[in-house]
User: Which sequence fits this backbone?
């Protein structure tokens, strides 16, 4: 549990590090687009891992929902950046998120059965809390384009539902 808390703290620092820097230099819309898209892809990869490893129906149903919903939001984001002629800009936050996600996927790959299911569910709770906090506290307030801001707000509403679903799932796996 302490390891999970430390990983979550690291992910929170990565995502929310932008908020500390936001006072000096808020992320730009292209950077926000890349961070949001990266965060969605990270959750899709975790869900695909769960679909490949878990035999628990509730875990598999949740993972399928994550793939479906995050892919849909990412598709909307890609359509928006194309419409706006914006190129998402890789940045230190999106790069650090990807590196941390690789560590988490590797750690989860060594778990099996209920241990995997519990760790995946706990990770999903923590990840959604972190992403939701970053969306509400940094990314949405920093977005300049109204359509991008609206998409992020829609995503936040959906991802708050994901967080509640993940919390319920994690509680059921104790």
Assistant:
């Amino acid at each position: 549990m302490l390891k999970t808390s430390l990983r979550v703290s690291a992910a929170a620092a990565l995502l929310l590090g932008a908020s500390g820097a936001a006072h000096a230099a808020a992320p730009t819309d292209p950077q926000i687009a890349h961070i949001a898209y990266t965060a969605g892809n990270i959750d899709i990869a975790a869900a695909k891992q769960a679909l490949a490893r878990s035999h628990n129906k509730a875990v598999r149903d949740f993972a399928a929902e994550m793939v479906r919903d995050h892919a849909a939001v990412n598709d909307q984001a890609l359509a928006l950046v194309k419409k706006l002629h914006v190129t998402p800009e890789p940045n230190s936050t999106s790069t650090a998120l990807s590196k941390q996600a690789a560590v988490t996927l590797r750690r989860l790959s060594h778990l099996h059965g209920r241990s995997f299911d519990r760790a995946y569910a706990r990770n999903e709770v923590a990840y959604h809390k972190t992403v939701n906090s970053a969306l509400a506290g940094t990314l949405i307030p920093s977005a300049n384009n109204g359509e991008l801001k609206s998409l992020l707000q829609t995503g936040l509403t959906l991802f708050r539902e994901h967080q509640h679903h993940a919390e319920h799932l994690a509680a059921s796996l104790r």
User: Anything to note?
Assistant: The chain is about 85% helix and 0% strand. The two ends are 13 Å apart (CA to CA).
